[in-house]
Amino acid sequence: MNDVKTVPAQAADTTEGDVLLRVENLVKYFPVKSSGFLKPREFVHAVEDVSLAVRRGETYGIVGESGCGKSTLGRSIARLHDITSGRIVFDGQDISKLSQRRMRPLRREIQMIFQDPIGSLNPRRRVGSIIGDPFAIHHTASGTERRRRVQELMERVGLNPEHYNRFPAEFSGGQRQRIGVARALAFQPKLIICDEPVSALDVSIQAQVVNLLADLQAEFGLTYIFIAHDLSVVRHVSNTVGVMYLGKLTETAPADTLFTVPRHPYTGALLSAVPLPDPDQSAQRKQIVLVGDVPSPIAPPSGCRFHPRCPKAAPVCVTDDPVLEPQLGDGPDHLAACHLPMAEGESLADFKPTIGAEERVIEPEGVLAEDVLPGGKPAGGDAGTGSASPGSGSIGAVPTTREGGQA
Fold first, then answer.
1. Measured at the alpha carbon of residue 150, what is the angle toward residues 148 and 155, in degrees to the nearest 5?
2. Which has more pLDDT, 65 or 225?
3. Where are the alpha helices (DSSP H) in 141-278?
4. Cα distance between residue 192 and residue 82, in whole Å
5. In CA terms, which of 63, 210, 328, 358 is 20 to 30 Å from 233?
6. Would you state the pLDDT for residue 202?
7. Quick one: pLDDT at residue 285?
8. Does the pTM exceed 0.85?
9. Is the distance from CB of 370 to CB of 40 less than 8 angstroms?
10. Nearest-5° angle of CA 296, CA 297, CA 299?
């Protein structure tokens, strides 16, 4: 993706007026169906105590493994999911608890581009009708005027306006994603949440869509939340990057800073997996392979949620939940939730955990229905530490280098 456009560097000092979106201590739990009448009800900890700020005209990238809560966070911010607790302040207005009726006018200002360009389009409807839905729902245009505005949007995103009456199946994957972009752009919203918009596309098509999003941002002053797996894409498009693991934000920093000086071991492990174009550098680098599975979000580990897989794990990581704060003299815009942050130039391959597998707490007691306050927030936060589950695949997991040995 050498042709992908990069974003300009932004000044670190901004005022409160620059912040379009502020998320404070956002929590989202999903109830799990009970398998028995007397079995206590459990909850999936999809998003846990996430706070972030997105400045106007910038792109906030969110990365992490599958199942870490990235998409749930994006959908919660767009209020497609009702949140369990916390606050979402959009353009100075608290939208956390707004009803669907009161949220409807704000739908013009907050739009989403979904991951699956096929699943997000109705195969039985023509493209003109799909892109024109926002105008019909909000009663802003009809008839000839709606058709004209839809064709203008199609042309703006690189589609042939003459294909107005075609069905989604008659377009390629990249063209279908452009249809989703055109639909999201109908009202020129202030915030667009891009939920892995290029993950289902070929590399060359990814570059085209990313460049299109960059052009639209420059033209209309859009603000993006960009959710993706591909770290190289996130680095190109983002001003600020947040790293999520098992529902929690583990590190956030300006893009260049995070990719140059990662503080959290999980971030370091992710960056070690990014392909390098230079084969000599790639051969010399030690890639950290995290052994074991991600713990269950129904019963997350005590303390730091990454400690069962962390090569720097210590007893304090098991007992104390780290605070997201500056580490090792970093500025206020570089935050990491880690008791033992990585120093500049440090390699995870040089570390071994100071605690044994039997000391690592994998699955504490889950949150029960009687422990949940009105609105779904657990009383007293997470449940106790509990004990490690026998036979868990992630107990005692440590990174390995590319050569196959333990780190």
1. 95
2. 225
3. 143-156, 173-184, 203-220, 231-237, 255-260, 265-272
4. 19
5. 328
6. 82
7. 75
8. no
9. yes
10. 70
- Tell me the three state secondary structure of residue 317: helix
| Rounded CA separation 402/347 (Å) | 13
DSSP 379: T
Would you say 234 and 254 are in contact if contact means Cβ atoms under 8 Å apart? no
3-state secondary structure of 206: helix
Dig out the tokens for 187 from the structure: 């009202």
Q: Which of 208, 234, 220, 148 is nearest to 184 (CA)?
A: 220
- What is the distance in angstroms between the CA of the first residue and the CA of the last residue of the chain? 31
Residues in CB range of 331: below 8 A, 6 or more apart: 12
Sign of the alpha-carbon torsion through 313, 314, 318, 322: negative
At 364, which amino acid appears? P
Among candidate residues 144, 105, 110, 107, the one with its CA nearest the CA of residue 128 = 144
The type of residue at 307 is: H
How many CA atoms lie less than 13 Å away from 256 in the CB half-sphere? 7
How many other CB atoms are found less than 10 A from the CB of residue 45? 26
Put residue 339 in one of left, alpha, beta given phi > 0 → left and psi -120 to 50 → alpha.
alpha
Cα gap 378→372, rounded to integer Å: 4
Q: Is 398:306 a contact under the CB 8 Å cutoff?
A: no
